[in-house]
Amino acid sequence: MKILLTGTTGYIAKRLALQIIEDGHELVCCVRDMSRIPDEIEENTQCTFIKVDFLEPKKADIPKNIDAAYYLIHSMATSSSKFEKLEEECAQNFKALVEDTNCKQVIYLSGIVNANSLSKHLKSRLQVENTLKSDIYALTTFRAGIIVGSGSASFEIIRDLVEKLPIMITPRWLNTKTQPLAIRDVLTFLSGGLGKEDLFNKAFDIFGPEVLTYKEILLHFADVRTLKRYIITLPVLTPKLSSYWLFFVTSTSFQLASALVDSMKVEVIGKKSNINEIIGIEPVDYKTAVELAFQKIEQNAVVSSWKDAVSSGRFKSQLSKHVELPKFGCYKDVRYRKVTDEKFTLDKIWSIGGRNGWYSYNKLWKIRGYIDKIFGGVGLRRGRTHNTYLEAGDPLDFWRVLFADKNEKRLLLFAEMRLPGEAWLEFRIVKDKLYQRAVFRPRGLWGRLYWYSVLPFHAFVFNGMIGALVQKS
């Protein structure tokens, strides 16, 4: 079958693509930015890539001969106050384009919407589901609750809370019930539903075998990690205070924290059906899902992360628009060193940040991260998805990877910390020299004052960093 995949760079779609390829199907992947094609599938002969922004459908060129499509466009991390309208518009445009093809089935991953009172995001998902219904193709909707997997937003937030806080003073929504589902089971439902006419024009709740409160989820996670944790719930923490609590303690953005708090107040219990028998699946329990996630983490085999989404930071436009360093109206700090072992230096560059740190004055980097977090920035807590691998679009502490190519010996980062301007950091080997360029384009007087205030630190921070990149200890 020829399958159209949307949300290609997203947490779910990036993993689903590998499953669909393994099942022997042909993939047509929609991407808004061609520079962000996932490396795992970029060279695969079963995949083709088309540039599509479903908010600008006139520029889309979707093949007519597709057999089915996955609609996996959704962002809880968006800061737009009009996200419901944007999501509906996106769904309408997708529907119009797909109805003009041979597509027989659209599969949509939504959220469980059985509660009497829904969060804004769950309402939006239900609205999108209704928008996607068509007389031309059949719609199959899978409605999931909390998804457990390495790199998922809920998993990483729970991990932050459990591993950092022996005692937690928590909001009352920790008593809300939900049914967590392992990411591998989500992918089995999505891939297993492909082409099954029994599922046409139907919606199914998909969920794990246990009903747990969020408090129980935290304690079960602690058990898996062999940690003793104490949780005290208070009724006085308002949604806004709860959002700030998540924001400062975990790696999440404030927008995502707010969306999660809004959703976590809603009980997410699925309705039973025969979907497990139709697909041939027996979902694993929560503790098993956590153990499986840590197996991936320990193997450094995390395929995707919620932090990969551009909306998890402050970056708003396509990465490709910023790949070339600006030449005018900028301040620059340029340093170079002779490279004696090119492989060593490239490996060090590709391992920078996250747990490995920045090789020089890491305490100062951490202080800068704390300051950024206080002012509403992303800070250093996002870390990096892989320890030794980078591709365009990856988060790297408070940077975003714009370009990463070992063959071209170039890594380019764009700053997502709070700044009165724009900043780039480039590492590039030319012949036998490593060039390290920090470029800052100031915005107004404050931008210029900022540059001169941090300039004294560059002398030893940047000097130490480039030295560590070329010298073996």
Question: What is the structure about, briefly put?
Answer:
With 473 residues, this protein is an alpha/beta fold. 35% of the residues lie in helices and 21% in strands. It folds into two domains: 2-307, 3-Layer(aba) Sandwich (Rossmann fold), CATH 3.40.50.720; 313-470, Alpha-D-Glucose-1,6-Bisphosphate, Chain A, domain 4.
The portion of residues forming beta strands comes to: 15-25%
Number of domains: 2
Major sheet, described briefly?
7 strands, parallel
Number of strands: 19
Class by helix and strand content? alpha/beta
Query: CATH-wise, what's the superfamily of the largest domain?
Result: NAD(P)-binding Rossmann-like Domain
Q: Assign the CATH class of the largest domain.
A: Alpha Beta
> Helix count, per DSSP?
14
Describe this structure in words.
The chain has 473 residues and is of the alpha/beta class. It has two domains: 2-307, 3-Layer(aba) Sandwich (Rossmann fold), CATH 3.40.50.720; 313-470, START domain (Alpha-D-Glucose-1,6-Bisphosphate, Chain A, domain 4), CATH 3.30.530.20. The protein has helices spanning 11-22, 39-42, 83-98, 120-132, 153-164, 183-192, 214-224, 239-249, 254-264, 275-279, 286-298, 342-350, 362-374, 444-470; strands at residues 2-5, 26-31, 47-51, 68-71, 105-111, 138-144, 147-148, 167-171, 177-178, 181-182, 202-206, 212-213, 230-234, 331-338, 395-396, 399-405, 410-415, 421-430, 433-442. The strands form five sheets. Strands 3-2-1-4-5-6-11 form a seven-stranded parallel beta sheet, with helices on both faces. Strands 14-19-18-17-16-15 form a six-stranded antiparallel beta sheet, covered by helices on one side. Helix 1 (11-22) packs across helix 6 (183-192). The termini are far apart. The mean pLDDT is 85.
